[in-house]
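[SOLVED] Need 3D model of a two-part complex

Original post:
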Amino acid sequence: DGGITQSPKYLFRKEGQNVTLSCEQNLNHDAMYWYRQDPGQGLRLIYYSQIVNDFQKGDIAEGYSVSREKKESFPLTVTSAQKNPTAFYLCASSVLRGNQPQHFGDGTRLSIL
Amino acid sequence: GESVGLHLPTLSVQEGDNSIINCAYSNSASDYFIWYKQESGKGPQFIIDIRSNMDKRQGQRVTVLLNKTVKHLSLQIAATQPGDSAVYFCAESLGQNFVFGPGTRLSVLP
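Solution:
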């Protein structure tokens, strides 16, 4: 069954700690994305990648980092520089970047201890 | 469940009635639009899309209407069922990145 898998579902971060959120897809999509979702707001783009070993900052990249070493995987690291990390994080993919549907994982809820 | 639906407008409909969810988009040059459904604790699920060269598109039990004159998008759900209860949001695109609306919570009453 093709899809996007995000893990863990819930994650807790201590002060000064970096945490990494996993995103894996078996849809053979070239483009992958990370979004942040806050209550009452639309999704905001953190980072995106159109191809392996390439990624670009989105609208709210500060305090986050990503890598794209494999086509299937696009992990997101929330660094200690991100002062307000509590949010629901969504990973998505699409065949290519552009005017086509993005398919989403079921998210990771990050909270501060 | 997730708190992503806090402070969202809510539409309550009786089971079996039709639902109409509205979205005002921001960029008159946007040329592609999507409706997503998001259930509590889950990721958004694609429902239907429409390109700007169309003003109506139908799917299974759903219809999307696009009014470019007033930058308005609507999602109509026929014979609303309990399983339709969720947050619905629209997304607009101009070739590259999407802009997502905050959504509307649909509550189906028995």
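Edit: The longest strand of chain B covers residues 86-93.
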